[in-house]
C-alpha cells in the first residue's frame, strides 16, 4: 500500500555505489558483514521522533514552513495518532531497527501532569500495538524538561522544590513508557540545568540537587527492573549560558562526586562536542577511556555558525574516525546512531525526510567501511603504538607499574639526552584521506 504522505510503498533498498537514486542506498548494505557483525548491527540506526515529525521548520526569525497535516487541528490526540501512523510508516520505508522519542513529542501535555501521564500511556499503548507487527524497536526514550516555561530556571536544579517534584513525575512517566516499550536505554538531556548568571545562582546547591535527582532515578530504574543504562547527553551551552553537563569530562567529574559511576553513561552528540570546543572524536575517545560510552546522536553543525544547527551527518571522514574508535572497543552495546538531526526549513517536500536519512546512513556506512580497512591495515593504530612503545617495556613499563621512585627516575635522567621525534600529523591526515 502506498503511503499517503510519502507517496511510495517499497522500503529503500541497497543499490550499490554506482546508483544515482537519492532514495537508494549506495553504501549501506545492512546484511554485509564487517568485522564479524552485520552492518545494521554495527550502525544501529534510529530515527528521532521530534525533529522528524514535530519540528515545524521554524527559526528565531520565522515560523512554520513544513505544514504537516498532523500539526493542525482541534483534537490533539487524533493528531497524535495521525503523526504516529506517518512515523511508523517512515520507519518501515527506511527499514531502520530503532526510533527514539521525547514524551512531549508523542503525547499532548494537556492541562496537568496527571492528564499528560494519561495521554502518554495511551500513545504508549498505540506504539506497543504498532511494534507488534513492525521491525522497529525503541533505542531510548526521554523527557522534555526544558521547553515548558516552568523549567525556565531548570528542572532538577530549579530553586523551587515543586518544579523538582514535577520533573520527577514527568521523568517517571517517560521511563515507565520506555520500559513498557522495551527501550534499550533512557536518556537525560539537561537543557536548562545550568545558569544564565552567577548573580542569582547557588552552584553547589544546584549540583547537589542534580546529584540527588540522578540517585533517585537510578534507584527507581532498579526498582522497576529497567536493565538499560541511564545516559546523560553533554552540552556546554544553549539554551543556558553554561550547562552543568558541559562535556564528557564535566559529566565524569559529576558522576564521580555523586557516586554514580557504573550506573550512568554518555550519549554523545557531534554538534554538542563542537560547541564545547572539542572534536567529535575527542568526546568519544574520552568516554571510552573512562568507561562512559553509551550511545551517539549523529548529526553535525555548520562550520560558520556557532549554535546547534542539528544537520544530518554527511562527512565520511568524521564518521570513519567515529567508527575507528568504536570498532576498537567492540562497538555498541545498548546504544546506537540516533539521527538527532532535522532537515533544513526549505526542504519542504515529504520525501526530503527520507532522502536526508538515506544520505546520512550512507555517509555513516562509508565511514564504517573505511574504519574497518584502516584497522585491518593498522594504518593509524601502528603509528600510535610505535609512538608510545617506550612505555610498553623497560624503564617506561617499570615506572607505570610503580617499580621506580620519583628519586630513582630523577637520578636516571642525569645521564639522559632525549631528542624529540616527529609527530607526523600531516602524514597521518594523508593516510586517513586515502581510506575515505
Automatic annotation (TrEMBL):
Keywords: Carbohydrate metabolism, Cytoplasm, Isomerase, Magnesium, Metal-binding, Xylose metabolism. Mg(2+) 2 binds at residues 269, 272, 308, 310. One of its GO terms (biological process) is D-xylose metabolic process. The active site is at 102, 105. Transmembrane segments: none annotated. GO terms for cellular component: cytoplasm. It catalyses: alpha-D-xylose = alpha-D-xylulofuranose. It is found in: Cytoplasm. Homotetramer. This is Xylose isomerase. It comes from Fulvimarina pelagi HTCC2506. The gene is xylA.
Amino acid at each position: 500500500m502506498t503511503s499517503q504522505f510519502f507517496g511510495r510503498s517499497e522500503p529503500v533498498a541497497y543499490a550499490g555505489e554506482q546508483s544515482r537514486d537519492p532514495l537508494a542506498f549506495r553504501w549501506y548494505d545492512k546484511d554485509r558483514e564487517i568485522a564479524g557483525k552485520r552492518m545494521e548491527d554495527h550502525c544501529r540506526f534510529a530515527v528521532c521522533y521530534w525533529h522528524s515529525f514535530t519540528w515545524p521548520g521554524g527559526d528565531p526569525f520565522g515560523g512554520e514552513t513544513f505544514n504537516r497535516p498532523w500539526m493542525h487541528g482541534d483534537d490533539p490526540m487524533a493528531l497524535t495518532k495521525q503523526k504516529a501512523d506517518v512515523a511508523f510508516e517512515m520507519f518501515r520505508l527506511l527499514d531502520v531497527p530503532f526510533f527514539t522519542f521525547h514524551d512531549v513529542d508523542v503525547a499532548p501535555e494537556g492541562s496537568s501532569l496527571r492528564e499528560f501521564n494519561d495521554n502518554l500511556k495511551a500513545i504508549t499503548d498505540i506504539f506497543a500495538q504498532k511494534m507488534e507487527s513492525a521491525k522497529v524497536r525503541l533505542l531510548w526514550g526521554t523527557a522534555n524538561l526544558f521547553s515548558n516555561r516552568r523549567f525556565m530556571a531548570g528542572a532538577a536544579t530549579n530553586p523551587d522544590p515543586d518544579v523538582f517534584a514535577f520533573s520527577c513525575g514527568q521523568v517517571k512517566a517517560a521511563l515507565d513508557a520506555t520500559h513498557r516499550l522495551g527501550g534499550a536505554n533512557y536518556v537525560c538531556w539537561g537543557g536548562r540545568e545550568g545558569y544564565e548568571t552567577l548573580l542569582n545562582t547557588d552552584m553547589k546547591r544546584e549540583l547537589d540537587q542534580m546529584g540527588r535527582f540522578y540517585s533517585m532515578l537510578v534507584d527507581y530504574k532498579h526498582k522497576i527492573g529497567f536493565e538499560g543504562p541511564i545516559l546523560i547527553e553533554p552540552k556546554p551551552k544553549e539554551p543556558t549560558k553554561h550547562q552543568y553537563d558541559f562535556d564528557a569530562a564535566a559529566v565524569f567529574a559529576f558522576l564521580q562526586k555523586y557516586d554514580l559511576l557504573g550506573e550512568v553513561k554518555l550519549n554523545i552528540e557531534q554538534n554538542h562536542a563542537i560547541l564545547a570546543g572539542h572534536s567529535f572524536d575527542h568526546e568519544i575517545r574520552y568516554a571510552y577511556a573512562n568507561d562512559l560510552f553509551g550511545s551517539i546522536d549523529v548529526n553535525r553543525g555548520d562550520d560558520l555558525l556557532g549554535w546547534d544547527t542539528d544537520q544530518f551527518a554527511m562527512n565520511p571522514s568524521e564518521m570513519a574516525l567515529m567508527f575507528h574508535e568504536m570498532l576498537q572497543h567492540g562497538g555498541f552495546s545498548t546504544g546506537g546512531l540516533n539521527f538527532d538531526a532535522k532537515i533544513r526549513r526549505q526542504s519542504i517536500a515529504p520525501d526530503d525526510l527520507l532522502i536526508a536519512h538515506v544520505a546520512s546512513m550512507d555517509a555513516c556506512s562509508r565511514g564504517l567501511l573505511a574504519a574497518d580497512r584502516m584497522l585491518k591495515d593498522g594504518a593509524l593504530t601502528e603509528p600510535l603504538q610505535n609512538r608510545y612503545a617506550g612505555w610498553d617495556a623497560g624503564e617506561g613499563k617499570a615506572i607505570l607499574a610503580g617499580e621506580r621512585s620519583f628519586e630513582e627516575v630523577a637520578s636516571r635522567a642525569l645521564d639522559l639526552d632525549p631528542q624529540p621525534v616527529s609527530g607526523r600529523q600531516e602524514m597521518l591526515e594523508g593516510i586517513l584521506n586515502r581510506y575515505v
